[in-house]
Design goal:
Blueprint (H helix, E strand, L loop, with lengths): L4 H16 L1 H8 L4 H11 L15 H9 L1 H10 L3 H4 L1 H7 L11 H12 L3 H4 E10 L3 E8 L5 E7 L3 H22 L8 H15 L2 H14 L6 E2 L12 E5 L4 E2 L3 H6 L4 H19 L1 E3 L7 E3 L5 E3 L5 E3 L2 H15 L3 H10 L9 H16 L8 H14 L6 H20 L5 H16 L2 H18 L3 H20 L9 H24 L1
Helix pairs in contact: 1-3, 1-4, 1-10, 2-4, 4-5, 5-11, 10-11, 14-19, 14-20, 15-16, 15-20, 16-17, 17-18, 18-19, 21-23, 22-23
Length: 515
């Protein structure tokens, strides 16, 4: 799009994908049309020698993106949350793109810290380790605060990472436009929107103050959750390129041998992981969207500690209620109600037949509930559900895809801790509590109270808003009927709208006082 470097970068990218065998895999996953495959073959084959070889032990696509560098690795991580775009199999491969890059030097990390915090590292920390983890955007060091002796984790952005990402994102936009031009059928995948989503996520991660803010919000929301911890942000030692958190001391959630050796109750841990996620998604509307085993630690006292808050999910209150009603409907096998919720939320076009949709939902739920309890999967249910809703014209919703992807990951964590876990048995009380608090009479009164408060704030402006709307509508009708003539709006309708506005304000004040 901007600059000839895009063409060269894309040639190098295509060459690497061709050389590693990733090109065919990607085209198959996207169900690319024959002419696009031909273009990719003609342009890729002669330049294959320009591509990076990568690590032959890795799957083709993972091999290609790790060879191409940080922006491509991060893009792969983001795409792993979009099976609707790249397919389930390729999305599963992309999920292994964690901590795949070599670290940069301790000297560079220390220089970055001193530049950002404007203090010598030795004055801040009495000890500062070699990198303990290196990912696509940043790496982490273990350190000890000089003043207090507290152990902390110091996350430092890679040198020059912002410029590298800007360059590669520019090339991604160029590639998306080319795909839309050369393969109109691929527009259904919305490649430009995918790149916009990627850019938005990365821009947030390139400013560690945003991740620190997410960690602090998550910690505040979950402060009362028994058996769960979020490391505390050290705000005075955090900036745009450096973030300092309390050190999370524990064993990784995927180290089952260490968990058993520590005497932890694996069943309780598995159930707690699932309950915590559902509470965060439903109760708070703010959840850890990368909750895999590597981002969870088990402390010596059995607490679960979450780390890495670069990818967080957010659901508005209405979406949470819809999600809870859908889950609750499946729990009760009330497929008609699940269908009604989809139509009420506008997820399915109103011209579709609700009875046909309910019947399709039954075909999703019944086989799953016929399984052994240990095999019942909420993630599988959501996968099947999205397939059905797609057939009935439901458009892709990014927030639900992220929720579904995280649900699958959380299920995997829970089952790895306790394979016999009954997902629905654990989920039922959480969903029922949420339904009771947010869809009953108490919730209705709470909603009325909120509405009254909003109306009371807008009350003084309601007459003017009504007047403006009336004037605009009258002018529109007048111009449609008499294009060459202007007419003043009638007086009495205006008075009526003023009275309506005043009455609305009075009602709002009265409701606010009553509630």
């Amino acid at each position: 799009m901007r600059g000839p470097h895009n063409i060269w970068r894309l040639i190098r990218t295509g060459a690497t994908f061709e050389r590693t065998g990733a090109m065919r895999v990607v085209l198959d996953a996207m169900d690319a049309p024959p002419h696009l495959r031909l273009v990719a073959r003609v342009l890729g084959k002669p330049f294959a020698w320009l591509g990076y070889a990568g690590d032959p032990s890795l799957p083709p696509v993972v091999r290609a993106v790790t060879a191409l560098g940080p922006a491509y690795i991060k893009f792969g991580q983001i795409l792993s949350t979009r099976p609707d775009v790249i397919g389930d199999e390729l999305a599963a491969q992309m999920r292994v793109l964690q901590d795949k890059l070599p670290p940069f030097s301790v000297e560079e990390a220390r220089a970055a810290i001193e530049s950002e915090l404007e203090m010598p590292v030795d004055r801040i920390f009495s000890a500062f380790s070699e990198p303990v983890a290196a990912a696509s955007i940043a790496q982490v060091h273990r350190a000890t605060l000089a003043e207090t002796g507290q152990e902390v984790a110091v996350k430092v952005l890679r040198p020059g990472i912002e410029r590298a990402f800007r360059r590669d994102v520019d090339a991604f936009y160029f590639a998306a436009r080319m795909v839309e031009i050369l393969a109109p059928s691929a527009r259904r995948l919305r490649p430009t929107e995918v790149i916009e989503h990627f850019e938005g996520v990365v821009l947030g991660e390139l400013d560690l103050r945003m991740e620190a803010s997410a960690a602090a919000e998550f910690a505040a929301n979950t402060e009362g959750d028994a058996g769960f911890r979020v490391p505390r942000v050290e705000w005075f030692l955090s900036s745009r390129r450096v973030m300092t958190l309390g050190w999370a001391d524990g064993v990784a959630a995927n180290d089952i041998d260490a968990i058993v050796a520590g005497g932890h109750d694996r069943k309780a841990l598995g159930e707690r992981v699932l309950r915590l996620f559902l509470n965060h998604a439903l109760r708070d509307g703010f959840f850890h969207a990368d909750m895999h085993q590597g981002n969870l630690k088990i402390a010596a006292d059995g607490d679960i500690i979450a780390i890495d808050f670069g990818i967080m999910g957010r659901l508005d209150e209405y979406t949470r209620r819809v999600y809870a009603e859908i889950l609750f409907g499946f729990i009760r096998k009330d497929y008609r109600r699940v269908a009604e919720v989809h139509f009420e939320a506008g997820y399915v076009p109103p011209d579709r037949d609700i009875d046909d949709f309910a019947r399709a939902l039954r075909s999703v739920g019944e086989p799953i509930f016929g399984m052994d309890a240990s095999r019942i999967s909420m993630g599988r249910l959501l996968n099947f559900l999205f397939e059905v809703t797609e057939r009935f014209g439901m458009e892709t919703r990014t927030e639900l895809i992220l929720l579904q992807r995280t649900m699958v990951v959380v299920e995997g964590v829970s089952r790895s801790l306790y394979p016999q876990i009954n997902i629905w048995e654990v989920a039922r009380p959480v969903v029922e509590d949420y339904i009771r608090e947010n869809l009953g009479p108490k919730a209705m009164m709470r909603d009325l109270g909120r509405t009254a408060r909003v109306l009371s704030r807008l009350g003084p402006r309601l007459p003017q808003i009504a007047e403006d709307l009336l004037m605009a509508e009258t002018r529109r009708h007048d111009l449609e009927r008499h294009p060459n003539r202007r007419r003043r709006p009638a007086f009495w309708p205006s008075v009526g709208f003023v009275a309506l506005g005043a009455g609305g304000m009075a009602l709002a004040v009265a409701l606010g006082a009553a509630l």
